[in-house]
Amino acid sequence: MNTRIISALIAPVAIASIASLAFAQTPAPQPTAPTTVTSPVVSAPATTTASPNEAEMMKQMMELAKLTENHKLLADLAGSWSTSVKMMEPGKEPSVSKGSVTFKSIMNGRYFIGDHTGSMKMPGADGKMKDFAFKGMSIDGYDNVKQKFISSWIDNMGTGIFTFEGTYDPATKTFTYTGEMEMPPGMKTPVRSVIKITDKNHHTFEWYENRGGQEMKTLEINYTRKK
Fold first, then answer.
1. Beta-ladder partners of 193
2. What does the mean pLDDT of the chain come to?
3. Cα(109)–Cα(98) distance, rounded to whole angstroms?
4. Is pLDDT at 207 greater than 70 in this prediction?
5. Are 78 and 104 in contact (CB under 8 A)?
């Protein structure tokens, strides 16, 4: 099957992402008034032809550098997790494997690094299926200027860096990221990942690929916090 699909052992994320439940290295500054989970404390600078006032620009940059409730959402996903991975391909039985991931904060809680490990079956030089050790790394954060969650991904199955942008729905406790993958040169595939928070000890990751104009789910990961 398409081995790049494994790169989703992510996300995010989150994800999701997925995503990260150890807390930031230092306490996050609290906003002076409640803010929505999808917006930073201050807005991005407006486009203008006039020269900006240096003092005002510095003040705004300092505000934009502060941690918000959106960073706290990612902090709530930090920690060590066991993963159950299910890969799906049309017309074939799902492939199931196990793995683990540890999310930790860096830059005083502004970003979260995910260290992903697992194993999978892949054909060797002789054509027979063999165990393959998978390793990946994700960096997740919230960009106060773009007002979006951001995620990047690298692994030991390629040389590219994948980047995604996302939003969070507080009503469903769901992160949704979108981006593109380019496996064969010149062939870009739109992708979407969904990280749904079940509770503080469980969340799920789903990966969708657009193939020929039709979106299909090709990966599902269930996360359980290690005790």
1. 177, 207
2. 82
3. 28
4. yes
5. yes
User: How far apart, in whole angstroms, are the C-alpha atoms of residue 227 and residue 225?
Assistant: 6
Q: SS3 for 168-208, per residue?
A: EECCCCEEEEEEEEECCCCCEEEEEEEEEEEECCEEEEEEE
Cα–Cα distance, 193 to 178 (Å, whole number): 6
Contact 129, 121 (CB under 8 A): yes
Where is average pLDDT lowest: 39-48, 98-107, 109-118, 125-134?
Answer: 39-48
Nearest Cα neighbor of 60 from 47, 36, 44 is 44
> How confident is residue 183, by pLDDT bands cut at 50, 70 and 90?
confident
In angstroms, the CA 105 to CA 155 distance is: 19
Q: Enumerate the β-bridge partners of residue 135.
A: 117
Domains and CATH numbers, the chain: 3-28+50-225 (2.40.128.20)
Look up residue 74 and give its amino acid.
L
Average pLDDT on 185-202 reads: 95
Best CA proximity match to 11, nearest among 164, 190, 201, 157: 164
DSSP 3-state assignment of 133?
A: strand
